[in-house]
Amino acid sequence: LLTICGREGWFPHLGPCLHASIVKNPEFFEPVDPDITRNALVVWNSLLALYVRRGMLADALKLFDEMPMTDNISQNTVFNGFLKNREIESGFVLLKRMLKSGGFDQATLTIVLSVCDVPEFCLVTKMIHALAILSGYDKEISVGNTLVTSYFKCGCSVSGRRVFDEMAQRNVITWTAVISGLIQNELHDDGLRLFSLMRSGLIHPNSVTYLSALAACSGSQRIMEGQQIHALLWKLGIESELCIESVLMDMYSKCGGIEDAWKIFESTEEIDEVSMTVMLVGLAQNGCEEEAIQFFIRMLEAGVEIDANVVAAVLGV
Questions:
Q1: H or E element: which one contains 303?
Q2: Percent of the chain with pLDDT over 70
Q3: What is the maximal distance between C-alpha atoms in the chain?
Q4: I need a labelling partner for 107 at 20 to 30 A (CA). Which of 71, 144, 204, 237 fits?
Q5: The whole model's pTM is what?
Q6: What is the rounded CA–CA span in Å between residue 221 and residue 252?
Q7: Residues contacting residue 272 through CB under 8 Å, at least 6 positions apart
Q8: DSSP-assigned letters across all residues of 142-195
Q9: Residue 45 has pLDDT above 70, yes or no
Q10: What's the rounded Cα separation, in Å, for the pair 107 and 125?
Q11: Is the model's pLDDT at 5 over the cut of 70?
């Protein structure tokens, strides 16, 4: 009922009633024997998650403090709610409580690292990294992956690469995180070298990895490597995915291959605003002024929403 209540939007009507029913029947929802405790904890955590999903964080924290039993799931639910709603200060107050009580796990660490996405959080990332080492959770692949992502998002590319190099286990998420991170930090050649190393191993790239590699080709204007990746995508049968087509057009445009970009655009089965914007910017950047203006008129006729990138491209021709 609690799950349905949250999904179907019935919380304003049923939520308080279900909460009251749980409180009024303590014999079923308090730690009396192991079997009841396990089942009761599931109910309490479901109620807690319901308040968090509704954004009622003050009520969620009050419920958490009044619950007759809690576990790491309870704590992580409230903690995640604070951070997802960018109530960082309240979230870190709760984290301090969790650390004092020893009630944290690898999920706690990945939750806090997920908000470390700007340079100002580099020190926090390093502190959580130290905590992961002390607690032994640095060996967990999920923690390692999140550390790599956080370090690169914070601009600490050296630390991100070091974590990657020291990881005993890696999966496609690990490789994609470090390749994407290198490219986000404009280390395009390093990203391409690592992509090549990944392809020579046992872990195969996914669509996101290929998108990152194409972005590296765009950033370093390596059209030959871009063509090789294009051929791989064709061989794998994923060349025609809309997001990949847009990135391919962008890569060819930035590498001076505007004709190839245009061929991809013309062969695209489903044209969207992103692909049209990429094509317009590509035409403008490659000195095709007349074609860019005609294409802009085509976009207006198609009812495409004009954003800052489109305006900048048109003003530049």
A1: none
A2: 86
A3: 79
A4: 204
A5: 0.83
A6: 9
A7: 242
A8: HHHHHHHHHHHHTT-HHHHHHHHHH-S---HHHHHHHHHHHHHTT-HHHHHHHH
A9: yes
A10: 15
A11: no
